[in-house]
Design brief:
The complex is a heterotrimer of chains A (331), B (245) and C (247). With 331 residues, chain A is mainly alpha-helical. Helix content of chain A is 66%, strand content 6%. Chain C is an alpha/beta fold and 247 residues long. Classes of the chains: A mainly alpha (331), B mainly alpha (245), C alpha/beta (247). Bound molecules: adenosine-5'-triphosphate (ATP) and magnesium ion. Adenosine-5'-triphosphate binds at residues 12, 14, 16, 18, 36, 38-44 of chain C.
Amino acid sequence: MHVPDGFFTAPVAIGAGVVAAAAVAVSLKRAKSELDDRTAPMAGLVAAFIFAVQMLNFPIAAGTSGHLLGGALAAILVGPYTAVLCVSVVLAVQGFFFADGGLTALGINIVLMAIIPSAIGWGIFQLVTRVARNRASVIAGSFVAALISVPIAALTFAVLFVLGGTAPIETGAVFAAMGGVHVLVGIGEGLITAVTVSSVLAVRPDLVYGARFLTKPLVLKTATGEQVVEPARQEAPKPLRPFLVGSVAVALVLAGIVSFFASSSPDGLERVAEDEGFLGAATDHAFGGFALADYGDVGGIPVGIAGVIGVVITLLVGGAILWSVRQKTAA
Amino acid sequence: MKGLYRPGDSPIHRLAPQCKLVAVVLFAVVVVATPRERFWAFFLYALTLAAVTLLARVPVGYVLKRLAVELPFVVFALAIPFIGVGERIDVMGVSLSVAGLWAAWNILAKATLGVAASILLAATTEPRALLLGAQRLRVPQLLIQIATFMLRYLEVILDEMRRMKVARESRGFTPRDLRQAPVLAKSAGALFIRSYERGERVHLAMLSRGYTGTMPTLRDDRAPKAQWAMAAVLPVVASAVLFVS
Amino acid sequence: MTLDVRDLAYAYPDGTQALFGVTLSIARGERVALLGPNGAGKTTLVMHLNGILTPGHGEVRVAGLPVTKENLKEVRRRVGLIFQDPDDQLFMPTVREDVAFGPANMGLRGDDLDRAVVTALEKVGMADAIDRPPHHLSFGQRRRVAVATVLAMDPEILVLDEPSSNLDPASRRELAEILKSLDVTVLMVTHDLPYAMELCERSVILSGGVIAADGPTREILADGDLLAEHRLELPYGFAVPSPPGRG
Ligand SMILES: Nc1ncnc2c1ncn2[C@@H]1O[C@H](COP(=O)(O)OP(=O)(O)OP(=O)(O)O)[C@@H](O)[C@H]1O
Ligand SMILES: [Mg+2]
């Protein structure tokens, strides 16, 4: 399931890495403000849960089985920011400790499997539970959120692939295949997410982050029989706007970075379409993935150097973001 | 669920984890950035990895077996020449897309080299050491802590999951199609509650021993320059191959 | 009094009320057994003793200090809590790091820290396991390391939640010997009545979230009706030794 190295051109992979680093940095800050000093153990255990649950194989039809992605589920159970953290850590561990998913593709995998499902899933869940604030809406919301999050993630994959993939496949075909198959996968994901959420709701409703509005006020009896009523830990629904604005901003940054590299990329679809004398031209490239490579040199800078400069700049930006967040969390 | 780590005492095992991490990531970047037409560059990368495998005394069979993770993508890659667009050629009577063949080769070569490098990293570095290495590389503390807790409790949680599976099956449950999925999902719900509550108890255990939000840093192993130099050989060789080719 | 609990009531966030007004005092050097059926609220009570849970009503004092946010650090240094499941207690990747966690939080570093770790592990006979990961140890070994994690903080009051559960007879005896050899106040939650008899001169029965009995262990265990009322049973064939001097 995890994208390996070589599926996307280096610039797209690195661009996605920068976006992933930024999103993880934001999530770190937000999760910490929510979970406080519980962040490390709680997120660690939830990450272990997600790792385990992804190994549960669900039978789909005779012989075939699918497995849960869990992004939307995590967002509903522990909140979108903690969810992004947990799934990202799961992906990193799978990449570095289990050699599952390319190391250069880690950013892409985090975007596709942590950020998109959590953000989309949470957004849709919020929309549904805003219509009616009760148990049924929480369960319905979970179903719809998980269902939609899967094809959206698949379509994001398709978009990235068209922009910066390395294989010449017709755009329409990519979209049809990814979208169609994943609507089916999404139904399974939605069903399982909804039942999981409802079974948690039945036993420990207070644990479902997305259903905190269902919590009742606490009543306390003491030895002398008096009753102390603690104020309900209920909060007014937060406005949806900051979340939507944030999501759009992330999407724009993503689109910006990816298309910046991809539009200049000679690989992928456009390239095949417009370039017939493919074999002869290709051998001239030093960095196949870079537009700069097309003409041998750019403003006098040799191709290879130009490529390296690009990579270095991107790494610096990502590093700067991580560093600044580290300073903040350390303080 | 065991990681890929194989205990050993080779020069590669002894290398500081942060050096290995950087070397492998840079190697993967160089591989991915290599134009697919340079067959012999890929061949030299593979040779380099083979040398590392020998030096680390990791059995070749072990690496090859673990390469199976990328199988789904091999299938995908092999399909591209059939569904690819553009100019086509006949190979033994089958019409294949030329660009598709290139794409398939590109994905297969790079993914295989990338996975092989990751396998070598994971096989020669203890998970705990890998985390300390990442910490040295200034990955945010909180992420390291989350990963540390995750690895500590993964086995415990997988154990709980296995026990639930045995409990289901000993009562005659066998999943056949999607209609049985809700039963599995209920187990997932129970597993979540157990994981979450364990997280709470772990947090309480930490509090009761004076935890105030930051982990005490007990080890801070700086890697000597020689180790960096040795680890640098991998990406430097790869870059040299790339630039010469 | 080194430990004072007054009128303590508590309800969990999901609304389950576990304690309905508990009052209990323990003097320095005492060893007290806390008995009671499943769900009586024993673990909940114990978690109030070092401020992990905050009373919904009532008060807890340790060595005269009220257990409040300002005093937490001091209280947690004085009260060492050993949890029911050693897997919850041993959360670090190696035994060494785990035992060091508490004293390091108290500010110990370098050689002092190493010495505290080794001493604590020696007390429980686990010094050889210092560099092993906790999940590779047997259950009884994990329980012993869990005791060491708390001993390393040099507590005045040791609170143990079911320390003898799941231990084989030899480990159970070894743990008793360790506990007897320590010069600390002990509060021990247990379902193992002979164990209470062996280690503690005083016992308290908690049932339904209130204290149902409090007295010398010998007398409490000899009162068959009291035990039956609170679902407590002596193992088959076990007879409470009669008090010395009374034939
Ligand atoms: N985290 C929790 N959330 C909600 N209710 C809880 C929680 N922990 C315990 N309870 C409830 O509080 C009551 C007292 O539980 P507690 O764990 O204190 O019992 P105990 O005496 O330690 O039992 P045992 O002998 O089984 O360990 C029980 O009804 C239990 O279901
Ligand atoms: Mg208990």
